[in-house]
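Let us work through a complete example step by step.
Step 1: write down the sequence.
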Amino acid sequence: MSTPEQIHHGNQFVKILRHGAWYFLASVLTKAAAIVLVPIYTRYIPPSDYGIIGSLDAISRMLPLFMSFYLDAAFIRYYYEERTVSRERVRVLYSTQFWFVSVWGSVVVVIGILLSPVTIEPLVDVPFSPYVPLTLVSPLFLQLGIMGSQLMRANLKARVVSLISLASFAATAAVALVLLIPFDQGVVSLLWGLAIGPFVSVVAFTAIAIRQGVLGWTFEWATLRRGLRFSIPLTPNLAGAWISGFANRLVLAHYGTLTEVGLYTIAVQISYLIYFVTDAITQVQSPIGMSALTEDTEAGKRQMSEFVSVFLWTLLLAYLGLTLFAEEAMKILTPSNYHSAYTLVGIISLSYVASGLYRVFTTVLSYHHRLWVISVGAVLSGVLSVALLFAFVPSHGQDAAAWSFLASTASYAAWLAWWSQRTDPLPLDWSLIRPTLAMAGLVLAGYIALEEVDLAEGVAVAAKVGLLAAYTGAIFVIPGFAPLRAGLTGLLGQARARFRGAV
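Step 2: predict the structure and record it as tokens.
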């Protein structure tokens, strides 16, 4: 009988396909729908106002650092251990963290409101109401929702998480569209949507936690201290990620224009499709990896190494597809005043490839409690990002913002991989990794060459299709790809068998 402690048993790729498919479906339905909404948003909101959204979004994404101190990471770390003790210990763990985030997060919201006249309002040049309250409240709802989703993910309840994510998105979109179109509320309509959606998520996850008996009127200081001892050393990781991924918008707004921030924000939204792929997969693989390492470290490392090879090939396929056709996508989705943003997509989306890969090494480091490695790397990548931003954004604008994001993320991924391999090396299969990187590099070089040639639109699209087909078809031609080919063939065979059985 399968138990939560045995989630790593069996074929990890079948589990990723089965459970990750729900995360991916939710991402496709919500994020693809969000992409479909981009033409509506950009029709009613000019790039300069979109820059306000991007700037306020950057501020709201910084607040979880102070609201929860990354306690959701501590929950995943200790959940499996507490399950082996008793269900009561799980209730104490969940309840303690939930009530701490609820109370302390509310205090942070109040402090933010009091300080907003000298922080948010002059920085983004917006009035207090309703901009400031909505910007501050939405991350608190988001953090409380994450608490519930972590419990579901720890037990591979992908369907539950995905359905709640869909409901949250539907609420966000409905509120935003109603306020945007009939009531012509502009930027405010999106802010209301971004607050209501997470609130729906909080209500749903909290109801589930109460029904399952894991949320009660329980609080234990010892459990909180243990969690904070684990999570606080990781907060520089969160801070570094924010500096690398979002501070560039504020720097760009200061040295450039809100129009540039708006174009950069649209490019990020398109590039985020890569994040959807990585998130859908790693939400399943991360708990599997931690569970495997906990039971048998050597077997867990072999399992994770096998995953890296397939994951890298899949990520680069998604990256190349998005980068090659970014211009066409931008022309379809946005008015002409947004089209130039396509040049940023290839740079920004490569950052999400790097961030997806380093999650594997973060799992190894977290298991061995090498938290200082994660935090120091985050600080160094943040310092690098800030240095690059202030050195080049004043003269190169949004291009420098995108390249600084890539440089800091790639350096952080390299740092984590190096230290992870020093701590407890994964037996990486370089015979697969090298040809994967080489093929992706050749396709990318071909795309760059195409950009320098003035071709008819139809010819250019056909050439890009050929380049993408070359990358995909290489696994059937190059001998070094034989293990990957065999693995993918076997996985597809199992998927077909499961489909026939379901029918």
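Step 3: interpret the result. Confidence is low (pLDDT under 50) at residues 1-17.
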